[in-house]
Every structure is written in structure tokens, then in C-alpha cells.
Amino acid sequence: MFQSEHMTAPAPAKRFTRVDRHAAVRGLYLPFVLLGLGSVVVALSATGRHHLGVLSVVAVAIALSFFAEWFVPYSRMWNRSSGDRERDVWHAVVNEGLQLLSFLSLPFVVEVLGFDGVWPTRLPFAIQVVGAVLVADFGITVGHLLSHRVARLWRFHAVHHSVTRMYGLNGLLKHPLHQLFETVLATTPLILLGLPSRVALAVAALTTIQLLLQHSNADYAVGPFTPWLATNRTHRFHHLKWAGSGDVNFGLFTNVWDHAFGTYSYDPRQLFDSSVLGVEAEPDFPVDYSHQLLYPFAKRSRS
Fold it and tell me: Domain limits of the chain?
């Protein structure tokens, strides 16, 4: 049969353009990592047997972080090493190793200090993890705030604020003694409540994933959750070098406590580059790993 002159040819299939791919990555990255990978972490941790599986999910999150930063960067300049890549890797390896050791020692600590039967083990495992995350978020927020108000604590925390480009691994850039301080504040209430080790495993993995999201150079979409989730959009304001040493947005998982403490700040018109980051009082802050470990003890370090 011949096609009638009144019949229209089928419309050509719409091409999935580069713009569409960028929009898809921007829109899907946060929910995929936060909800997708987060759910896998919770499911694997619930069994209490798949420790390597949980670590594998964290590795996937790290790989996706680098991919998103390359594909939809907030700043292409922040993807280029400025002589700090090796230092950042050392921070990540050491701090993640210490976190793993903390997890392995947790059952012993809970047995010695925890109150037996207090932890709500009858609740669904996912609810236990969410509750533990919220408790840890409060402890970390308070510890973070104190680190900006107490001079001796700031000397250790300043290492984290020395960055002049923000990307995923920056979340793991901390002086190990300051990480220990934050860990103690975050976990002490949970330990006293008898936190099960499998819940602790989930919280540890989710903390690493959240640090990647919070410091990511990926220009991912947050939408109406911007005021409440501690994502990179709000955390960049914490790294402004002239904002009272970053005296805003202290939360790790949420901005809830920042709203309560009056420390929340966000302006969508603010643009960021390396010139607005760092420690204003220390323009020559040491870059290499060994000197950063010694910085808090040096006489020239300032509050």
C-alpha cells in the first residue's frame, strides 16, 4: 500500500543530548547516592556479616563522586590538583583507617560502658540507623561549633579549613586528633545507649558517604531540601575564609541544629572560587601532610 498524502510521517526519535545527560546526572546524583547507596549500606549492615560489602559500597560512592565532579563540575578549576592530591589521599587513608579501628573496638567499648537493654533493638533496623544518625549529627554539630569557638580546638580544625578547592576527598581531610574529638562527641551518647556494632557499621559508612556529598565539586540538584540537608551548596558557606572562620552551617547530615542555634546561612547569589576559601589568618598554611600534622603544635599557629 502507498502512504496517503494526508498521512504524516512519524516524528523522529528525540535524541538524548549532552544537555539532557548533564541534567539527568544533576538531578539523579543526590537521590541515587543518599537513598540508593544508603539503602544498600543499611541492608548489608543489618545482616551483621557483610563488612566487605559495606566497604565496597563506600568505594562505589567515592568512584561516583569523582565521576560526577568530572561530568557536572561546579568549578572545573577545582578538579585540577594544586599540589594537594597526595596530601588529600594521605588524609583519607589515615582517617578512614582510624574510623575502621574505632568500629572494630566498638563492641568492647559498648560492653564496658553501655547500659544493657537500653538500645531500642525491637525497632526496624532502618529506624535504628536513622535515629543513630540524628544523634550523631547533634554531637558532631556541637563539636564542630566548639572547634570554631575554642582556640585550642581551632588549631586542629584549621587543618580542614586550609583547603582552597572543594571536592569530595576534602571531607576526609582532618587532623586525626580532631577526628577523634568529633568521633567521641558523636558516639558517646550512642555507646552509653548500647549501640549495636551493626548499627555502628552503617553509621560509619553513611558518614563517609555524606562527607563526600558535603564537599563535592559536583553541581548536583538539591531543590527544596537545600535549607535542611547539609549538602555542598550550604557547606561551601562554612568554608568562606572571612565569614568568622566559617561560623555557619556546622551540621554534617542536616542543617536542623544550625537553624536551632541561629548559625544557618545561605545565599544563592554567592559565587565561590579558590580566592574565597582557606584560612584568612594563615595565607601560607602548610600544604603537605606531615606539616599539617604538626601545625597545631607550632608556635606560629593562630586561633
Answer: 85-215+223-297
